[in-house]
Amino acid sequence: MTKKYIRNIRLSFGISILILLISSIASYFSITKLLESEKWVSHTFQVIDKLDFIVSRMKDAETGQRGFLLTGDKVFLEPYTGSQNEVAAALEAVSGLTIDNSVQQQDIPVLEQMIDQKYTLIKKTIVDKERGIPVTEPILLQGKEIMDGIRVQVIKMEVAENQLLLRRQKELKKFITYTPIFVAIGAILSLLITGFFYNRIQRNLDENSKLEQDLNVKNQTTQKEIEEITKMAKKISEGNYSARIDNSDS
Fold this sequence. Notes:
Pfam families: CHASE3 (PF05227)
Transmembrane segments: 12-31, 175-198
Organism: Pedobacter duraquae
Distance between the termini: 38 Å
Structural class: mainly alpha
Radius of gyration: 45 Å
Protein name: CHASE3 domain sensor protein
Shape: rod-shaped
Strand content: under 5%
Keywords: Membrane, Transmembrane, Transmembrane helix
Oligomer: single chain
């Protein structure tokens, strides 16, 4: 019984530790994926934010250009001044953030080319204005077409990022749902295993206790028999043979 008792304890601890280990690994994997998904969601928002910034600064530059062309006052060029470097930096950031996205990497050069064309045209109109050369309607329409193309290209890239974001949010939701389930299942299994082996160990203890009681009773009975036999043997050795007969009769 002792070996059986020890075996149950070892088995109980072994299975409980195994369940705990599996549960911990599953939880760790789920939490890791959760953090990874959260990182990608943040990454997608960064890309969209940079693309929005590009359009915003391009619109500011265009607004400054129009103000200068109407008034000739260079104060209107403040939004334009420095915006080209800011837009270039934002575009470079988008390129770095989407380095693993082949579709976006193909779209970036297209956007970059249109941005360069737009700034080249803005600069030309400013120089022409300073020289007293009238800015023609075809030039302004060309600038509008380029800006419309920039908006369309940015929208296309943002749609792609939003679709990617939806997939990542779906994956994030999945891991948010499954992580507590893994933990709960592991906890429940551990409790069930612990309860099962507790009952087995308790049953073994009860069996051992009953066996010990039976052995005590048997030992007491045997001891009494030994005492009776000893007494009888002593009487016989003293020549009292009737004790033997009386005992046999009894």
